[in-house]
Amino acid sequence: MFSIYITSFIVGGLICVIGQLMFDVAKMTPAHTLCTLVVAGSILDGFGLYEPLIDFAGTGATIPITSFGNALTHGALAEAEKHGLIGVLTGMFEVTSSGISAAILFGFIASFIFKPKGNL
Amino acid sequence: MDQKKYAKLEQGITPKPPILKNCIKAFLVGGAFCLVAQFIALFYMTFFDFTERTASNPTVATMIFISMLLTGFGLYKKIGQIGGAGASVPITGFGNAVVSAAIEHKSEGYVLGVGGNIFKLAGSVILFGVFSAFLVALVKTILVKLGVVSW
C-alpha cells in the first residue's frame, strides 16, 4: 500500500532525470525534449508497456508528460478496438480530455485573475 | 573565423553544466510533484467514487489547478530555476506553459491575445502527441486486422 508512494517518487523522478539529461547532454531545447518524451510515451503504449508502468508507479507514471502520449494512444486504440480504423481518429482525446480541458479552463481563469509578471 | 571554428571555440569556453547536480535536483523536484499527485489520488479514492485507474483524471486536473496558482503567484518560475526538467516534465509544466502564455498575452485582449496565444508553448506537445498517437494506433490497428499482433 505504501510502496506506491516510494515507486511513484522514484519513477517520476527518473523520467525527469531523462528529461534533464536531454537538456544538458543532448543540448535539446525544453520544447524538443517534451515533444520527444510525448512521442516516447505514445510508442511505449503501442507496445503495451506503459500500462504496467502505471500499475507499478501510479502517479509516477501518469504525471510526467510521457503519460500524455500514452493517454492519446490508449484512447485511440480502445476506440479502434470497438469501431475499427475510424476509432483511431474519434477516440484520441477520450482519456486525456481532463488534462487539456483543465489546462484551457484554468489558463483562461488565470488570465482574468493574475497580472503579467514576465513568466514566459 | 568560419562557423565551425566558432562553434568549437564556443563549446570550449562555455562552462559545462553541472550534470550530476542538475540530475539530482530534477529527480527530487520531479519526484516531489509525483508524490504530491499520489496523495491527491489517495484523496479522490478515499472521499469520492474513484478507483486507482480512474483517479488519474481528476488528479491531473488538480495538478494543473495547483500549477495555475504557482504560475500566477510567480512561484513556478523559481521552481523551474531549481528543478530544471523536474519542473517542466510533469504535467504541471504543461499547465505552467498554458497558464503563463494566457497571462502574458492578456494585454493584447482576450480573443487575439489570450485566445490566440494560449497554446503558443504547449501546442507543439499536443501536435506531436496527437500525430504520434495517430501513427502508433493506426499501425497497431492494421497489424491487428492482419492478425500479426493481438490487442
Describe the overall structure.
The complex is a heterodimer of chains A (120) and B (151). Chain A is mainly α. Chain A has one domain (3-113). Helices cover 76% and strands 0% of the residues of chain A. Chain A has seven helices and no strands. In chain A, α2 runs parallel beside α5 (66-83). The model of chain A has no long low-confidence stretch (mean pLDDT 90). Chain B is mainly α and 151 residues long. Among the domains of chain B are: 19-90, no CATH class; 123-151. Chain B has helices spanning 3-13, 19-47, 56-72, 75-83, 85-88, 91-104, 110-117, 123-145. In chain B, α2 (19-47) packs across α3 and α6 (91-104) runs antiparallel to α7. The longest helix of chain B has 29 residues, at 19-47. Chain B is extended, with a radius of gyration of 21 Å. Chain B starts with a helix and ends in a 6-residue tail after the last helix. In chain B, 46% of the residues are buried. The mean pLDDT of chain B is 90. Chains A and B meet through α1, α2, α4, α5 and α6 of A and α2, α3, α4, α5 and α6 of B. Chain B: InterPro entries: Spore_V_AC, SpoVA. Chain B: It comes from Sporosarcina luteola.
Classify the beta-strand content of chain B into a percent band: under 5%
Structural class, judged by helices and strands of chain B? mainly alpha
Tell me, briefly, the overall form of chain A. Answer: globular
Morphology call of chain B? extended
Greatest interface by residues involved: A-B, 79 and 85 residues
Q: Report the biggest beta sheet of chain B as strand number plus sense, adding barrel if it closes.
A: none
Mean pLDDT of chain B: 90
Q: What's the Cα radius of gyration of chain A?
A: 17 Å
Distance between the termini of chain A: 39 Å
Percent of residues in helices of chain A comes to over 70%
Summed over residues and divided by their number, the pLDDT of chain A gives a mean of: 90
Strand content of chain A: under 5%
User: Could you tell me how far the N terminus lies from the C terminus of chain B, measured between alpha carbons in angstroms?
Assistant: 58 Å
Name the poorly predicted regions of chain A. none
